[in-house]
Amino acid sequence: TEDERRAALAEIDALGAENAGASEAAGAPPAQDRAAAAETRALTRQLAPKPSETPPAVLGAKLASRLHASPGDTISLFAQDESGATVDQTVRVIGTFRTGDDAADASRVLLHLDDLQHLLGLGDGAHEIAVRIARGADVHRVASGLARRPALAGQSIEPWDALRPDLLAMVRAN
């Protein structure tokens, strides 16, 4: 339900605040993390309108550059819905974001949850929620902390290395 989703997001936000010091311990500038978090919250508010004829989208800065897309432009997104069928949606670019992760900035598009659920035919559900944590934070500790949250009871919470052992092997090989 919407109330459960809001409670889960509040729990995730709270955990992020609890782990804010992890980036300092890892040597990352905390002011940069706070600025990125504030920018993310501002962009999330811009995405807040309910599904519309042409939904708003925020593009990773490198993706926007590759597409020569600026705020006000429209682009077409192609994805696979829950059944595996190819679906498409025209979206209106309302801004760009930078995460500091080149791969994310070159490939990510942020949409309002309702618009994404409509595009993918998920109803009011979601098949995955990915949580980005502060650089240097202990991913296993964060996953354990999330798993203990009452709002997330019964959910499968896995750290990235358990979900993508192939990526872990590549990281270890370097």
Fold and architecture overview:
The protein has 174 residues and is of the alpha+beta class. The chain has helices spanning 2-18, 21-25, 30-46, 61-67, 102-107, 113-120, 139-147, 160-163, 165-173; strands at 56-60, 74-80, 86-97, 109-111. It has a 4-stranded mixed β-sheet with strand order 2-3-1-4. Residues 17-28 have low confidence and may be disordered.
List the helices and strands and how they pair.
Elements: H1 2-18, H2 21-25, H3 30-46, E1 56-60, H4 61-67, E2 74-80, E3 86-97, H5 102-107, E4 109-111, H6 113-120, H7 139-147, H8 160-163, H9 165-173
- Low-pLDDT regions: 17-28
Let me know the largest β-sheet: 4 strands, mixed
Shape: globular
Strand content: 15-25%
Helix content: 40-55%
Mean pLDDT: 78
Computed structural class: alpha+beta
What keyword list fits this structure?
9 helices, 4-stranded mixed sheet, 16% strand, 174 residues, 47% helix, alpha+beta
Summarize the structure.
The protein has 174 residues and is of the alpha+beta class. It contains nine helices and four strands; from the N terminus they run αααβαββαβαααα. The protein is globular.
